[in-house]
């Protein structure tokens, strides 16, 4: 099936052949021919965002909640540079994206033309791979290759820069099958000897723990199923990173909650004291490890990761397995079953007893008293009132994000969209729109702080235009809460620039956007207000005024090991030493 | 340190995936041969990886070596602890147009050669001495005036270092070096 057509038509044809249903984008001079082709067809729905950063985050939300690659279309120059934050976000969180950018015509490249930027140069370090297509005959193959690279191995964003003359010129179209020429074929099967060694360790472990991450979710729903089977049949405890929430159900019996800097006490203590750590699709991020030389000192460590560069990057491991999580878990289960499903029951019972003692500390307990809403209480009520729903949660970045991870429970993968690696304030609003576009009938809530929310609030127009009934649940403390918390703990309570003296009236703002606005400041009204939000058929901006100086605990202070967690304000003073202060 | 840290040879296609069990703090110098698609920006990707992640480049050479297959060979000499060297190899292996990464320093004996042009401006006895030393080092005179020579010398980098050190008191004026090209010894 080779056909002659213009480059612009090829773009649309290639997207159709890749099964793309939705494109998030914003037009401009250098992509007009492609927009003209989009106008003349009905198979691909184009979502007009209000800022290119919003397009990329919306595509991330779409991708993370569907498992399909997100597709973005932006113009040259500022269109492309506005996409850079989203690309970096997707690179750090391994989200598959295909971003198409317009470029000035090939004969003007390098002349500082209007809206010219060296897009492939700028995006080289923030994409998994990128291409500048100078020949229409190469365009379709490059787009198909882009999808292949974005979705295979460790997923990530790719960018294809398409000069305007390449869009106008005619060339030969090649379908996905003819175009597959890439040598890029990452290894998915793990080494069997290593898997045997891991099974051997599973059988003998006295204090084992599974430590899982976003790789399980990226591997697909089958990987989450296999993980559940492995955890439940071995009876081992499991904790997860921020990115991995939902791969094992929060209601499951092995669940210890999230680990890391603001993770649960029992999860971090178990990580510190375990004798076998099985890292599945996580990357020993600094939010997880705390002080490296004191990280889980007594354990044998196994690490399953599709990216060889993740192994031994931060933490030295004893059993490295390079491969796709789903494939490797399948093999582990096969081998473990064939060897008689053995575990050290007696030691395991003792281990669980120890874990129950840590759980008894009840590190997430708080007191809701008085007339001011505690942010933890707001999330607890939100969880209670939305638990049974077909629910997707996105977040912004900061204290509210950590509280959401602590107090909301996820029983399925792909239900939790958050900016983990890059920590991008402004991620949540567009991501929620992207999720809602993918799941029009589901409940989509963006748990936000007022400061982050303001960063990409223009995307509420997008929500209104496409009737995406996203619920913006803003925990408003009139502060940059996490910054304020660090200034309190680290910088002598000098609150430099960490509060907003002028904030909009969110209810009026909602009305101006054409949404519903709800203000709630009294704990007694909270349930009714949340129900009002849920019952409204359309986008809602919920302004929840919360305690202004609440700190997020538990917390591993920078530069401290897992077993030196802070559980509350009482023991937080002077907890961070000078070496910890230089860490972020 | 246990042998368990090794992913066995043959467990993957790329030598970069062979993870060595070494977490020593001692810096080592390694010569890496990287086979890449000769496409726009590929060198920028490799260099950007080194600068972005804070790795050292002591020498880097690149040229297309397979015109039909459009493959280029990049030879990089780098220093770092064994863990950093392993990271460099794994990160290089991750770049999409990279086909193969070989660590010539650990994959058996290899030949390393560099070419240099060395200009020496001198007169009188020093000219005689410069020519005598050039003869010992098998350097060729490729340009000569009454007050200068340009020598061409090939060899391992330390041979070129030694030669230019000897030329310094004789009137070393300018040095141009190509960087290291390297191949493993033997049939494959």
Annotation keywords:
heterodimer, A: 584 residues, alpha/beta, Rossmann fold, six-stranded parallel beta sheet, B: 188 residues, alpha+beta, Alpha-Beta Plaits, five-stranded antiparallel beta sheet, four-stranded antiparallel beta sheet
Question: What count of structural domains of chain B?
Answer: 2
Q: Superfamily at the CATH H level of the largest domain in chain B?
A: ACT domain
Oligomer: heterodimer
Please provide the ordered H/E string of secondary-structure elements of chain B: EHEEHEEHEEHEE
Q: In what range is the share of β-strand residues of chain A?
A: 15-25%
Largest interface: A-B, 29 and 30 residues
Described by strand count, sense and barrel closure, the largest sheet of chain B is: 5 strands, antiparallel
Helix content of chain B: 25-40%
Q: Roughly how many Å apart are the termini of chain B?
A: 31 Å
Beta-strand content estimate of chain B: 35-45%
Derived from helix and strand composition plus strand pairing, the structural class of chain A reads alpha/beta
Assigned CATH architecture of the largest domain in chain A: 3-Layer(aba) Sandwich
Question: What is the top-level CATH class of the largest domain in chain B?
Answer: Alpha Beta
Q: Which class best fits the helix and strand makeup of chain B?
A: alpha+beta
Distance between the termini of chain A: 54 Å
Query: How much is the radius of gyration of chain B in Å?
Result: 20 Å
Offer a concise description of the structure.
The complex is a heterodimer of chains A (584) and B (188). Chain A is α/β, with parallel strands linked by helices and 584 residues long.
Task: Tell me what the structure shows.
The complex is a heterodimer of chains A (584) and B (188). Chain A folds into 3 domains: 3-179, 3-Layer(aba) Sandwich (Rossmann fold), CATH 3.40.50.970; 192-359, Rossmann fold, CATH 3.40.50.1220; 375-545, Rossmann fold (3-Layer(aba) Sandwich), CATH 3.40.50.970. Chain A is of the alpha/beta class and 584 residues long. Chain A has a 6-stranded parallel beta sheet. Chain A has a 6-stranded parallel beta sheet with strand order 11-10-9-12-13-14, sandwiched between helices. Helices cover 39% and strands 17% of the residues of chain A. By secondary structure, chain B is an alpha+beta fold. Chain B has 2 domains: 3-103, ACT domain (Alpha-Beta Plaits), CATH 3.30.70.260; 111-183, ACT-like. Chain A, domain 2 (Alpha-Beta Plaits, 2-Layer Sandwich). The longest helix of chain B is centred in the last third of the chain and has 15 residues, at 157-171. Chain B is elongated and about 55 Å long. The interface between A and B is medium-sized, with 29 and 30 residues.
């Amino acid at each position: 099936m080779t056909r002659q057509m213009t480059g612009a038509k090829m773009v649309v044809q290639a997207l159709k052949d890749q099964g793309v249903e939705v494109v998030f984008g914003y037009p401009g001079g250098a992509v007009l021919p492609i927009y003209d082709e989009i106008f003349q067809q009905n198979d691909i729905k184009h979502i007009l965002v209000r800022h290119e950063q919003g397009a990329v985050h919306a595509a991330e939300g779409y991708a993370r909640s569907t498992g399909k690659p997100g597709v973005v279309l932006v113009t040259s120059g500022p269109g492309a540079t506005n996409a850079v934050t989203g690309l970096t976000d997707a690179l750090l969180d391994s989200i598959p994206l295909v971003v198409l950018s317009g470029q000035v015509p090939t004969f003007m490249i390098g002349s500082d033309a209007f809206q010219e930027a060296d897009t492939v140069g700028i995006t080289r370090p923030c994409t998994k791979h990128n291409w500048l297509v100078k020949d229409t005959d190469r365009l379709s193959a490059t787009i198909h290759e882009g999808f292949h690279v974005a979705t295979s191995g460790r997923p990530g964003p790719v960018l294809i820069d398409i000069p305007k003359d390449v869009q106008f010129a005619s060339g030969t179209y090649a379908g996905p099958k003819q175009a597959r020429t890439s040598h890029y074929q990452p290894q998915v099967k793990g080494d069997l000897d290593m898997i045997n060694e891991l099974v051997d360790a599973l059988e003998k472990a006295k204090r084992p723990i599974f430590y899982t991450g976003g790789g399980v979710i990226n591997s697909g729903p089958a990987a989450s199923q296999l993980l559940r089977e492995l955890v439940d049949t071995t009876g081992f405890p499991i904790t997860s990173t921020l990115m991995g929430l939902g791969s094992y159900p929060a209601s499951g019996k092995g669940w210890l909650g999230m680990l890391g800097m603001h993770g649960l006490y029992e999860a971090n203590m178990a990580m510190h004291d375990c004798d076998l750590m099985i890292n599945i699709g996580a990357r020993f991020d600094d939010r997880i490890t705390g002080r490296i030389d004191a990280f889980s000192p007594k354990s044998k460590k196994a690490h399953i990761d599709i990216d060889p560069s993740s192994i031994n990057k931060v933490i030295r491991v004893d059993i490295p397995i390079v491969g796709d999580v789903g494939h490797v878990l399948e093999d582990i289960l096969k081998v473990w079953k064939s060897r008689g499903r053995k575990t050290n029951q007696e030691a395991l019972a003792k281990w669980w007893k120890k874990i129950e003692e840590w759980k008894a500390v009840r590190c997430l307990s708080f007191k809701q008293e008085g007339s001011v809403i505690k942010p933890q209480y707001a999330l607890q009520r939100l969880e209670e009132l939305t638990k049974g729903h077909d629910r997707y949660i996105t977040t912004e970045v900061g204290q509210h994000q950590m509280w959401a991870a602590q107090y909301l429970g996820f029983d399925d993968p792909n239900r939790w969209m958050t900016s983990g690696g890059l920590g991008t304030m402004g991620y949540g609003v567009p991501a929620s729109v992207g999720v809602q576009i993918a799941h029009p009938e589901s409940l989509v809530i963006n748990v936000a702080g007022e400061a982050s929310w303001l960063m990409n609030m223009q995307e509420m127009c997008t929500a209104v235009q496409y009737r995406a009934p996203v619920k913006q649940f803003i925990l408003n403390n009139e502060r940059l809460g996490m910054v304020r918390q660090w200034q309190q703990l680290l910088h002598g309570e000098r609150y430099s620039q960490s509060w907003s003296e002028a904030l909009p009236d969110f209810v009026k703002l909602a009305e101006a956007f054409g949404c519903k606005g709800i203000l709630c400041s009294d704990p007694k009204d909270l349930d009714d207000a949340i129900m009002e939000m849920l019952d409204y058929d359309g986008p809602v901006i919920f302004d929840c005024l919360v305690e202004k100086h609440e700190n997020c605990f538990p917390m591993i202070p920078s530069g401290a090991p897992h077993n030196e967690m802070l559980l509350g304000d009482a023991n937080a003073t002077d907890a961070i030493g000078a070496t910890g202060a230089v860490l972020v | 340190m246990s042998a368990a840290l090794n992913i066995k040879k043959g467990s993957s296609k790329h030598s970069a995936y062979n993870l060595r069990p070494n977490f020593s703090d001692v810096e080592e110098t390694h010569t890496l041969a990287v086979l890449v698609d000769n496409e726009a920006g590929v060198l920028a990707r490799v260099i950007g990886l080194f600068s972005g992640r804070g790795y050292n480049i002591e020498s880097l050479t690149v040229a297309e070596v397979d015109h039909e297959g459009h493959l280029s060979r990049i030879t990089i000499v780098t220093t770092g602890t064994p863990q950093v060297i392993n990271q460099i190899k794994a990160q290089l292996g991750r770049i999409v147009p990279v086909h193969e990464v070989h660590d010539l320093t650990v994959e058996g004996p290899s030949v390393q050669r560099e070419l240099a042009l060395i200009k020496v401006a001198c007169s009188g006895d020093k000219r005689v001495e410069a020519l005598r030393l050039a003869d010992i080092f098998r350097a060729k005179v490729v340009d000569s005036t009454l007050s200068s020579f340009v020598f061409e010398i090939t060899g391992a980098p330390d041979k070129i270092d030694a030669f230019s050190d000897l030329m310094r008191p004789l009137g070393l004026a300018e040095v141009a070096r190509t960087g290291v090209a390297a191949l493993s010894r033997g049939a494959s």
